[in-house]
């Protein structure tokens, strides 16, 4: 009996410690966009989302070490943890392909073509193999019949089997929501390490 009591007591202590650790990991700092502008994200202050995120004061994106990074800012930490969480989940919503090559939720603004027709890592960026009509201005329109151009099939031949959200991973840090684009062969663990690097630059 004492043995079982000791086990239960140990589990309670472990759960209590892990709970307190989670609370310590939550940051209550209020950051300004000036703080965010010092993260080294190129063109962050120039690029705005078209989507109107409820209660957000700013919603911008830029480039950080070859990937796109987005920041949605809220007036309060509470708004970031509630409204910001919803916004980030909507912008990173990855769904199963059921129609054409669409693999993103209806509210995703920024998308990217990933994967290839031969399988492999789902985050591999598809190369542009199109040497047909997609990039060429046709001067003699009479020589082509529009119905003969199967653009949807052409997109599959290009290797675009899935059009996914641009941003796959996100984190709420204080009053900021940070979303990042994956690089080829990069899993969520690696993406979270990148977010750690970005967050470490905040004051």
Q: Order of strands across the widest beta sheet? A: 1-2-6-5
Strand content: 15-25%
Helical content stands at: 25-40%
**What's the alpha carbon Rg, rounded to whole Å?**
22 Å
Bulk shape: globular
Task: Tell me the series of helices and strands, N- to C-terminal.
Answer: HHEEHEHEEEH
Roughly how many Å apart are the termini? Answer: 52 Å
By DSSP (H or I, 4+ residues per run), the number of helices equals: 5
What's the topology here?
Blueprint: H1 2-25, H2 33-37, E1 56-64, E2 67-74, H3 77-91, E3 111-114, H4 151-157, E4 162-165, E5 169-173, E6 176-180, H5 188-200
Antiparallel strand pairs: 1-2, 2-6, 3-4, 5-6
How would you describe this structure to a colleague?
This protein has helices at 2-25, 33-37, 77-91, 151-157, 188-200, and strands spanning 56-64, 67-74, 111-114, 162-165, 169-173, 176-180. The protein is of the alpha+beta class and 203 residues long. The chain has a domain at 29-127 and 158-200. The chain has a 4-stranded antiparallel β-sheet. The longest helix has 24 residues, at 2-25. The radius of gyration is 22 Å and the shape is globular.
